[in-house]
Amino acid sequence: MAHASGSSAVPAPLPVDLPALAIHAAIQRLKAEFTLAVDQKRWNDFTELFTPDARIDYSRTRRSWDQGDGLVYTDPRRFADDVAAMLADARTVHHAVSPLIDVIDDHHARAVWRMEDIVQRPAGAPRPGGHGYGLYDEEYRLTPAGWRIAALTFTRLTVLPVPAC
Question: How many other C-beta atoms can be found within 10 angstroms of the C-beta atom of residue 67?
Fold first, then answer.
C-alpha cells in the first residue's frame, strides 16, 4: 500500500508518552465526573472530586443566580453545599470541552476547559436560569484516591436567558 509520499515504506511511529496519555485520560474522566455529579445532584460524589485543601475561585464572575460578587472557597464541602442550594430547584446540563491539559510531572497537571451550561428553573423561581458560557482553569494533584482538583478558577463569559421549565 502506497503512502501519501508515494513510498510503500511504513512510516516511523510517532513517539508516544504513555504515562502522559494516561494522565490526560484520567483528568478528562475526572472532569466528566464533575459535570455529571452536578447534573445528577450527587453532592457527596462531587465533593470527593476535590483535594481536601482545594481552592475554588468564583471571584472572576458575577453569579447569575443572585447578581452578587463571586466567592473563593477553601472547603470543598462548603462549595458543594452552596452549589446544591443554588441548583435545588433547577434542571441543569453542563459540558466541559476542548481541554488544554499540561502535565507538570507525575503528580501534578493543569488544564483550561471551555464550558457551557444550561440552568432551567420553574416559572416564578427566585433565581433566574440561563444558558452560560465560560472557562474552567484547573490544577490537579494525584492523591491515593486518584487525580483530584486542587484548584479551580471559574470565569463566566456570558449568560443568555432561557425559558422556565
Answer: 9
